[in-house]
Amino acid sequence: MHAIEAIASRRSVRAFKPDPVPPEVIREILEVSARAPSGTNMQPWKARVVTGAARERLTRAALAAGMNGAELKAEYKYYPDRFPEPYLTRRRKVGWDLYGLLGIQRGETDKMRAQHARNQMFFDAPVGIVFSVDRVLEIGSWLDYGMFLENVMVAARAFGLHSCPQVAWTPYHETVREVLGMPEEEVVVCGMALGYEDESAVENSLRTERAPLSDWVSFHDE
Known about the structure:
By secondary structure, this protein is of the alpha+beta class. Helix content is 41%, strand content 13%. The protein has eight helices and four strands; from the N terminus they run ααβαααβαβαβα. The termini are far apart.
């Protein structure tokens, strides 16, 4: 697949087929993705790939943690306390576009929670990945991490796979530590679902918009 096509066709898929992904494909995706640049070549990324019984254990533990009433809190702040424009409008639009496809109306909090809990099932993808970073590293390494994660998702397209990056895994860091043996020195950056798209799922018909260049680019030639 051409690089431009891979980038343009990457999107967050929220329903996957059960078809397994060959282990050698997962390894190749991660190996090539590690060519991402990082400050002084520190390569700050760490990944825990879960498939089969390990994936089921993590999913069951996370769903149980979400249902037992315990307060779940991420170890870092992803979103601001207040969303200024244009971010508030963009955020609301994608949320209601998705819920509209799923037939979830405003105020149907139980249905919203059930849909959100699909994250902890990796949206039924056969492969789940939990990414973490050493706690001592600073914002520069987190910027590097973003380039690495984009590589993973674009490389997946070369194999006909889709993905969904999931910040929704960050409050479940204690569950990840318990099930996968992640040490306290690491912070959960995000999760990721990886597999083959279920093209029959209505939620996968969602196509998010991008702002035109005129909204965010200025060209200077003098």
